[in-house]
Amino acid sequence: MTQDQQYREFIDASLECMNACNYCYVSSLKEYELASLRDCIRLVRECADICMFTADALSRGTIFAKEIMELCAKACEACAKECSQHEHDHCQKCADACKRMIELSCVHSA
Amino acid sequence: MTQDQQYREFIDASLECMNACNYCYVSSLKEYELASLRDCIRLVRECADICMFTADALSRGTIFAKEIMELCAKACEACAKECSQHEHDHCQKCADACKRMIELSCVHSA
Amino acid sequence: MTQDQQYREFIDASLECMNACNYCYVSSLKEYELASLRDCIRLVRECADICMFTADALSRGTIFAKEIMELCAKACEACAKECSQHEHDHCQKCADACKRMIELSCVHSA
Amino acid sequence: MTQDQQYREFIDASLECMNACNYCYVSSLKEYELASLRDCIRLVRECADICMFTADALSRGTIFAKEIMELCAKACEACAKECSQHEHDHCQKCADACKRMIELSCVHSA
Predict the structure, then answer these.
(1) Which Pfam family name is an example for this entry (chains A, B, C, D) (predicted)?
(2) pLDDT per residue over B25-67, tens digit each?
(3) Which residue among D22, D59, D61 sits closest to C59, beta carbon to beta carbon?
(4) Among A62, B64, B99, B110, which residue's beta carbon has the most beta carbons within 10 A?
(5) How high is the ipTM of this complex?
(6) Nearest-CB residue to D46 (from A62, A70, A71)
C-alpha cells in the first residue's frame, strides 16, 4: 500500500471539508447579519486553506504527514466549534465536514 | 444553480488531476531512468499546483473563473503532451487525467 | 540572467501586494461598516491568493509565466478598483500595491 | 503592534527561504548527477510549499501561528540537513536560508 493509498480517506475528507468551508465562506459573506459572522468568515477560510494544503501534501507523500494532519485537525476543531454556533445551513454543513475530519484524525493518531 | 454547482464537474476533475499529477511526481522521482524525466517531474508538479489552485478558486466562486480555467487547461495540455511520451503507468494515468481536463475545458469555453 | 532574476522585481512586488491584501482582509473584517466591505473582503483575499501563487510559480521558473502574470494583473486591477473606493487606510494601501503590480505588468507585457 | 508586525521578521525569512528552496529545486533538476539529488528535490520543493503557506498564514494573522511555525521549522530542519550534504552552491544557499529559519523559530518559541 502506497502512502497515497494509506491516506486516501483522509485526503478525500480534506477535499470535502475544503469545499464545505469555501461554500460557507462565500455564503456567510452574503448573509444579512454579517457582523455576527466575522469569526466564522475568517475561520472557515483558514480551515479551507489548511485542508487544501493537507490534501495536496498527503497526495504527494509528505514526510510531515503526522504534523500536517494534526494542524488540520486543530483547524477543523476550531472551525466546527465556531460554525456549530450558527444556524445557517452552510455553517451546519461546514461543522459536519469538520467533525468528520476530527473523527478521521483520531483514527490516524490512535 | 450556484457557481459552485455549475463548476462542480470541473472542480472534481481538477482534484482528480491533481492527485494523478502528484502520484506521477512522486513515482517519477523514484524511477531508475531519472534523467529522461526531468521535464516530466517539473511539469506534473506544476500542473498539480495549478489544478489545486483552480479547484480551490472555483469552489469559492472566483470572479476569474474563465481565466483560471484557461490557465489550467494550458497546463494540462503541456502535461498531457509530456506524460504521454513516457510508458510508465503513472505517466499514462496522468496524461489521461489531463486529457479529461482539456475535454471539460472545451465544454466550458464553448 | 536566470528566469528567477528576470522576474525578481515582479516576484517582490507580488509578495508586497499579497501582504497588503492580507492586511486589508484582516482589517476589513474588523471594521464597523462591515456590510459595505463584502466585495472588498472577497476581492482582497482572492488577490492575495493569486499574488502568492504568482510569486511562487515565477520563483520556480514556471513555463506559464505570461499567463500567470496576466491573471495576476487582472486580479490586481479588480482589487485596486474596489479598494480605491474605500477611505480606510488599509484599503488605500492595498490599492497602491495593486496599482504597482499593474504598472510592472505593463512593462513585462510591452 | 499588530500580529502582522510581530511576525514580520519570520514572514520575510519564510519568503527568502521559499525563494532559496525554489531556486535549489529548479537547479537540482538540471544537475548531471540527478540520481543523488532525489531526496533533495522532494525536500526543497516541500519546504518551499510549507514556507509559502507559513508566510501567507502569518501575514493574515492566523490563530494557528504557533503550530504552523513549528511545522515550518521542522521542514526547514529536514531540508537544511539534506541540502548541507550537497556541495552545489544552490544547495548550500538553501541550507543557509533554512538554518536562518530554525534560528528565528527558536526565538519565537523561547
Answers:
(1) Csp
(2) 999 999 999 999 999 999 999 999 999 999 999 999 999 999 9
(3) D22
(4) A62
(5) 0.91
(6) A62
Nearest to D49 by CA among C24, B79, A49, A44: A49
Whether D71 and D50 have beta carbons less than 8 Å apart is answered as yes
- Kindly report, residue by residue over A49-101, the tens digit of the pLDDT: 999 999 999 999 999 999 999 999 999 999 999 999 999 999 999 999 999 99
Region at D79 (left for phi over 0; alpha for psi -120 to 50; beta for the rest):
alpha
The residue to which cell 513549528 is assigned: D70
CA distances from C2 to C109, D24, D92 (A): 18, 13, 18
Give A1-58 as a DSSP string.
--HHHHTHHHHHHHHHHHHHHHHHHHHHTT-S-GGGGHHHHHHHHHHHHHHHHHHHHH
How distant is the Cα of B65 from the closest Cα of chain D, in angstroms? 22
- Which range marks the domain in which residue D40 is found? 3-109
CATH number of domain containing A16: 1.20.1270.360
Please give the angle made by the CA atoms of A110, A45 and C17, to the nearest 5 degrees: 125
Asked whether the beta carbons of B21 and B48 are under 8 A apart, the reply is: yes
